Amino acid sequence: MQNSVLLRKIIHVDMDAFYASVEQMDNPELKGKPLAVGGNEKRGVVSAASYEARKFGVRSAMSGYQAKKNCPELIFVRPRFDRYKEISTKIRTIFLEYTDLVEPLSLDEAYLDVTENKKGNPSASNIAKEIRDRIFEEVGLTASAGISINKFVAKIASDYNKPNGQKTVEPDEVIPFLEDLEIRKFYGVGKVTTQKMYSLGIFTGKDLKEKSVEFLTENFGKSGAFYYNVVRGIHLSEVKPNRIPKSVGAERTFSENLSSEVFMLERLESIANELERRLKKSKIAGKTITLKIKYSDFKLQTRSKTLDYFIADKSLILETAKELLYQEKLENSVRLLGISLANLNTEKKKKETPIQKEVSVQLKFDF
């Protein structure tokens, strides 16, 4: 027998090429031109790319060298995070005029639960359109939105009509929508998992739905239950206004590769200072310290150590980071170092993902 659940009205708002769009807004000379925020033509990593640059295959996390190779006309600008935070705060203020249930994922995206909202508007689709219009009129930027019965489907839907568009997946459309969806477009299914699913004959949501929970658990561990549920439109995660971070970190990319550990120790001290500042600001401490090392050939390595007690002090963080640095010989010169703290004192014990019964969708629901 099927269970009925209370359907929520969830909006996922995602700003369009946010960092790059802010730079183009503030400097009209950059409008319509291929732009990369972060990095440069010799080194560094692209933080964001304008849509004009994306046409050439430039994307975030790409090396500046490769980005310039893809797009010789590419313009690099330094990121201005204070400015991005300022704009993000204005956008969040608009969200809060509609609901207090706002869960920011980053500076440029957030979930909103508008099942009950301050405007008394029964249509989540109309609310999303109104919010997008206000962001454009009051801030000067475009946003895209996805609207559906849960966070998972709303997140996927927000990508459909980018830029400056929205897509609503109504309750009776959720299952067909997920069945037709390419598996690589499922939120939370990365490149490695996608390839594994391909090897198991899973190419679409329909293929995924045909697999038993036992099969999925055997091949994907605890994530198997998650995949089993979401392809059936079941994702019970609530919109949480006070989202608790799982880790806090700081890192630096160097203008020149470092081969001397003495110079690396100097940089680690600076990074530890920044990390301590962020921890104190958030009143957070943690037990697991991770040292991130990116070599000149872009190979990434992490080394971690878990302590028996919580720390937030830079001297203790630095001491452990040094220990991790000397843990084994470096493979090459280093272009980036980072330190992060996890296993935080804000975390609660995780619960197993339960297998939910099939949900009978009630169609009398205004989206």
TrEMBL record:
The keyword Cytoplasm belongs to this UniProt entry's keyword annotation:
yes
List, for all copies, the residue spans of the domain called UmuC.
Answer: 10-190
- What is the required cofactor set for this protein? Mg(2+)
The record's remark on the cofactor is: Binds 2 magnesium ions per subunit.
**Known EC number:** 2.7.7.7
For this protein, what reaction is catalysed? Answer: DNA(n) + a 2'-deoxyribonucleoside 5'-triphosphate = DNA(n+1) + diphosphate
This entry carries the following GO cellular component terms, namely:
cytosol
Q: Which GO terms describe its biological process?
A: DNA repair; DNA-templated DNA replication; error-prone translesion synthesis; SOS response
Highest taxon above the source species: Bacteria
Instruction: Indicate the residues that form the catalytic site.
Output: 109
Named from the GO MF annotations, one term is:
DNA-directed DNA polymerase activity
Which PROSITE patterns is this protein grouped with? UMUC
- State the UniProt keywords alphabetically: Cytoplasm, DNA damage, DNA repair, DNA replication, DNA-binding, DNA-directed DNA polymerase, Magnesium, Metal-binding, Mutator protein, Nucleotidyltransferase, Transferase
Sites annotated Substrate discrimination: 19
Its subcellular locations are: Cytoplasm
Record: residues binding Mg(2+): 14, 108
InterPro entries tied to this protein: DNA/RNA_pol_sf, DNA_pol_Y-fam_lit_finger_sf, DNA_pol_Y-fam_little_finger, DNA_polymerase-Y, DNApol_IV, PolY_HhH_motif, Rev_trsase/Diguanyl_cyclase, UmuC
Which PANTHER family does the record match to this protein? DNA POLYMERASE KAPPA, DNA REPAIR POLYMERASE UMUC / TRANSFERASE FAMILY MEMBER
Q: What does this protein do?
A: Poorly processive, error-prone DNA polymerase involved in untargeted mutagenesis. Copies undamaged DNA at stalled replication forks, which arise in vivo from mismatched or misaligned primer ends. These misaligned primers can be extended by PolIV. Exhibits no 3'-5' exonuclease (proofreading) activity. May be involved in translesional synthesis, in conjunction with the beta clamp from PolIII.
Q: How does it assemble?
A: Monomer.
Q: Which HAMAP family match?
A: DNApol_IV
For this entry, the protein name equals DNA polymerase IV
